[in-house]
TrEMBL record:
CDD domains: EAL. Residues 70-322 form the EAL domain. The lineage of its organism: unclassified sequences, metagenomes, ecological metagenomes. Gene3D superfamilies: EAL domain. Pfam families: EAL. This is EAL domain-containing protein. GO terms for molecular function: cyclic-guanylate-specific phosphodiesterase activity. Signal peptide: none annotated. InterPro entries: Cyclic-di-GMP_PDE-like, EAL_dom, EAL_sf.
Amino acid sequence: MRNQIVVKTVPMKSEKYGDYEIQLVKPAAATVTLCTFTSNADIAMYHAKDLGRNSFHFYNEAMADNAEKNIRLVSDLRQAIDKEQFELHYQPKINLADGSIIGAEALIRWRHPENGMIYPLDFISLAESSGIIFDMGEWVIQQACKDCQSWIDMGLGDLTVAVNVSAIQFKRGNISSVIHNALSSSHMAASRLELELTESTLIDDSEKFRAVLSNLRSYGAMFSIDDFGIGYSSMIYLKRLPFDHLKIDREFIRNIHRDPDSRGVVEAIMAVSKQYGLQVTAEGVENREALEILKELGCHFYQGAHFSMPVPCDRFTKLLAA
């Protein structure tokens, strides 16, 4: 029987010493070197952490293969900005009242020289764990502001651009200067920039976090809660933090025309948004039936395949000019 290594992570609390984790490791075969043993233990530990608190995971060779793949990807990620492999695709944001494009959401793509187009789901977590997210996030904000201002300069509309900002970017503490620099270099008005925050970002809700939000609001930047409705405590943040928009998660939009429960959730969200004076964008609109229901319920904007999937900058420019 092949030997396996297991690591169990056990969170411990101590007022004096803080947070700790203990690694419990099953000894491997005698032929395994100490270096390999500890390396495999680390791999199993990180898999256990991904499962959540009080979890364990057995080491296997597939983990090592995946770890090696991730190491190569991280190495490639570190060079991606300098080699200009990142690009932004833009998904139009449509005014439900008249069908006009009023802005776009900027979504990063990685055009890898060997692996082709790589989507955020496959590299954002690596960027966050490796710290690359800071340079990457700064590039996204700068490029999005630059592109948006270029459309405005071309006379293509009174547009806004939305950018997703991760919790880690906020925790570093320099997000305000990053945004200020991007606005200054692009000459774009802060009121045209919308920062999309998920509940994982909002859950911090510390005094420092609120101070950063307040500082960015003083520039004139707007804020939206992304994927609203799927988090257990999203509603709490509406009272505590200064938001302008809600984005309804696509899970409630996809079947709204045939699922009474989804429609009920959207109706409730619209009622809440009205109470707090917020504008609402529906994500994932794929058909005319969903669109008509959203109009009926008073939704303001939508994104989705019914109008357009995310497209490269040049194609979005053509959509604006059409």
